[in-house]
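REQUEST ID: PR-0412
SUBMITTED BY: lab tech R.K.
PRIORITY: routine
TASK: structure prediction, single protein chain
INPUT:
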Amino acid sequence: MKANKIIAAALAVCLIGNPLFSAEYNKENLLAVSAAEVIESGKYGDNLTWTFYSDGVLEIDGTGEMMYTRGINQYPWYPHREDITKVIIAEGITSVAGRSFVGYENIAEVVVPSTMKDIDGFTSCCSLKSIELPEGLLSIGIQAFTNCDLIKTVTIPSTVTEIGVGAFEWCDALTEINVAPDNNSFVDVDGILFTKDMKTLIQYPIGKTQISYVVPSTVETIGEDAFRDAEKLENIILPDALTVIEPGALGSTGIKSIRIPEGISVINRSAFNSCKSLESIIIPSNVIKIDDLAFRNNVSLKEIVIENPSCEIYDSCATISSNFTANEFFTGTIYGFENSIAQTYAENYDYKFEPIENYYNKFKLGDVNGDEVVDGIDATLVLREYTLLLSEESGTFSDSQSMAANVNGDEKVDGIDATLILRYYTEALSLTSGAMPDMEEWINMQRSKL
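STATUS: complete
OUTPUT:
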């Protein structure tokens, strides 16, 4: 025991006197040497060594890049994956390879050296509470920190020029992605990650609690998986400048309805996959293609309106489906033009199809939700739309809904319309006999009284 203490002290003097070791790195290594037993160690590639200690610390030493392997079980520390709680990467190492720590559920801390240039491979480290990325880092890999559920905030250094798709997706607690102000490639607005020119929205942190979000007017592209799993978001307002919704961009969100801007020509693969609250959607005439899985597993979808008779629809029952994983195909209605591709698609898969005019004829004056009743729900929807228009300059109503909502005929959807609908509904409730006139007739009667 005494001999061990002397050896540890001697090692401490050597390490402290070595300028290549930072104070933090010395401290951690000294703890490992003096207090923990080496469980296993070895070489990895030509330039790295690794040591796993009894206290759960994995140290990786050496210089240069970490060698990539295709299989996660080919990294030599893989057998200890359930026992590793902390990873210390030595100064001099410049990369962490993809898949190197995928699914290591008990890693709670990672020490990243200042020499790190490319970081990857921490997917599904669900105990990792934070990650400090150093200045000098150049790239963050595809899904590098995906499904790290305890990370709340992350800061992108000024030197980062590349961030892979889904680098921080499925991080349930993540509320802010902050970018160093002098970064020339990326910027954040309210903790949401964009390209520097604000033309592409890269990642919306799904830990945010807001239910409505207005995409900035400069944005032309919603990046792949950008909003994926943002289940709290019930309303996303897309800007008129938008031209691309990349694959999976709005999948698994909580949206109930959405307006697709005129600049969109393609609904990409899985764009609205598993949007379980989405009840109806209009695919405008500018859309020429609906790709595979675009509306897969939309369990609440009752109506999809396809305004372009030549719109190409990927030939699969999963392109539009209610609960594909449970073999429950589309239970709603596809509305389109007769003899259109939409009709052919519906008939091929035995989906219900109706002529498009049947959809638009449902929206009688005042009946903004198309349920053939003018009531307090319609008034509430109109008031909500008016609030959105006031605060966010863009609403969610389709053209037909806006026409139905504009009950006083002034070409605006506002609080007056909501009030009139509510008055009409109140009168209908108070009737003890006789039939209530329809909304249009009732409005004309009100005008005649003025």
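NOTES: Residues 376-392 form the longest helix (17 residues).
REVIEWED BY: pending
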